[in-house]
């Protein structure tokens, strides 16, 4: 489907055949990103990974992340840190449950805090709780994500870019947050240079020590770090919030019904390309509607139902892959711009979910039980898909 959003022609892809063409067959043509003025400001001229145009710089940045930061080996080596962060949350829930039995907890806050604390620990190493840095990173990540995900006039009416009003209203917020990110990174880099924090396994240390080898500037390193925070914190905890109370199949089903990035990130074509008999000219923005693909009733039985057993029983869905091989189900995207942190994300989600189920029985708040109310599972669309209502549940400690 071709839609004209303001001045920008945008192709929206919602069928498996067209998604296959865009994300796999002609992946190289659609592997770029449209320019995003907010990313230019808060991602150091879009030199992170997610917003970098397809080309030599993106290849180098993606390689350093795939090889050193988010490799399977690295994700595994963070096991101890992950488990310790989970233990802290479990202990906190236990303490709250004992202090006020029957009181509902704000799971949105607790799970969001876990995702943020663990990512801070992976990225910053031991210094993450110092000076309340984890709180600060969480706040900055939330502001940046809302700016990037918000409707941007300039994205759709590019000629407005020079108008004072645009510069004042849209950019001043982005500039403010960018300055705060930059001050934080300068502090971290100064610590690294003075050798105060000697933990070579965290992302800041790894990136700074590899920057020469990969031809990255200090600003490039900062851009990649912002990307790590936003990509990891904004997504993993959304899955956690949605998937209680089941496990592996449940995580998959939660990602099918509530994909954290429902439209992936926008792709951008660099050559003309023929798809399903239509010529898509170079320079077209393409949105892949992963949400629609995963709920298409002609490709899924009981498409609208939360039914994790579909991934367990024998049948065509039992072996469904969620890492880009089955085009009906691409919560992490597919092809060369596929999510770089999928293994990291699933490891983060699984260990927490397993512990929440192992240690506690979960109930609805009594006022909801009394009127037979159910958890509100409706979604709020944006760059990430969020719950409309925060999740409140009551933990019961197993005797
Ligand atoms: C459940 C959690 C997550 C989901 C559902 C998710 C999903 C996605 C999606 C849909 C894309 C865009 C793919 C495309 O445009 O075709 C993406 C890109 C990306 N993600 Fe994730 N992500 C998650 C967690 C993470 C984590 C934990 C990290 C890092 C620690 C991460 C790092 C990235 C990066 C760097 C990119 C940009 C890739 C590129 O443009 O080359 N993601 N992610």
From TrEMBL:
PANTHER family: CYTOCHROME P450 FAMILY 71 PROTEIN (PTHR47955), OS01G0543600 PROTEIN (PTHR47955:SF14)
Swiss-Prot/TrEMBL cofactor(s): heme
Coiled coil: none
Highest taxon, organism lineage: Eukaryota
InterPro entries xref list: Cyt_P450, Cyt_P450_CS, Cyt_P450_E_grp-I, Cyt_P450_sf
Annotated keywords: Heme, Iron, Membrane, Metal-binding, Monooxygenase, Oxidoreductase, Transmembrane, Transmembrane helix
Protein known as: Cytochrome P450
Ribosomal protein keyword on record: no
Positions with a binding annotation for heme: 339
Higher taxonomy: Eukaryota, Viridiplantae, Streptophyta, Embryophyta, Tracheophyta
Family to which this protein belongs: Belongs to the cytochrome P450 family.
GO molecular function: heme binding; iron ion binding; monooxygenase activity; oxidoreductase activity, acting on paired donors, with incorporation or reduction of molecular oxygen
């Amino acid at each position: 489907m071709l839609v004209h959003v303001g001045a920008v022609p945008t192709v929206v892809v919602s069928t498996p055949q067209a998604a296959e063409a865009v994300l796999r067959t002609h992946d190289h043509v659609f592997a770029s990103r449209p320019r995003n003025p907010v990313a230019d400001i808060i991602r150091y001229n879009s030199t992170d990974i997610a917003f970098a145009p397809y080309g030599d710089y993106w290849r180098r940045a993606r390689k350093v992340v795939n090889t050193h930061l988010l490799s399977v080996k690295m994700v595994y080596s963070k096991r101890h840190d992950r488990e310790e962060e989970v233990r802290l949350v479990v202990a906190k829930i236990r303490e709250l449950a004992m202090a006020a039995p029957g009181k509902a907890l704000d799971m949105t806050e607790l799970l969001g805090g876990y995702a943020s604390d663990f990512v801070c620990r992976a990225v910053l190493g031991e210094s993450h709780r110092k000076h309340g840095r984890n709180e600060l990173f969480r706040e900055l990540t939330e502001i940046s994500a809302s700016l990037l995900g918000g409707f941007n006039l300039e994205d759709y009416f590019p000629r407005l870019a020079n108008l004072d009003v645009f510069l004042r209203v849209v950019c001043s917020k982005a500039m403010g947050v960018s300055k705060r990110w930059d001050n934080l990174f300068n502090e971290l880099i100064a610590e690294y240079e003075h050798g105060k924090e000697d933990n070579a396994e965290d992302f800041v240390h790894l990136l700074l020590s590899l920057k020469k080898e990969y031809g990255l500037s200090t600003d490039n390193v900062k851009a990649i770090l912002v990307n790590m925070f936003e990509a990891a914190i904004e997504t993993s905890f959304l899955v956690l919030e949605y998937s209680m109370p089941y496990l592996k199949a449940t995580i998959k089903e939660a990602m099918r019904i509530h994909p954290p990035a429902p439209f992936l990130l926008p792709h951008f074509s660099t050559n003309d390309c023929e798809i399903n008999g239509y010529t898509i000219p170079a320079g077209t923005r393409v949105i892949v509607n992963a949400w629609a693909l995963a709920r298409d009733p002609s490709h899924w039985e009981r498409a609208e139902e939360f039914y994790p057993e579909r991934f367990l029983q024998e049948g065509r869905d039992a072996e469904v892959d969620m890492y880009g091989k089955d085009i009906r189900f691409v919560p992490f995207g597919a092809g060369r711009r596929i999510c770089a942190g999928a293994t990291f994300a699933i490891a983060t989600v699984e260990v927490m979910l397993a512990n929440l189920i192992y240690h506690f029985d979960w109930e609805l708040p009594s006022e909801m039980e009394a009127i037979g109310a159910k958890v509100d599972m409706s979604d709020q669309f944006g760059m990430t898909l969020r719950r409309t209502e925060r999740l409140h549940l009551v933990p019961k400690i197993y005797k």
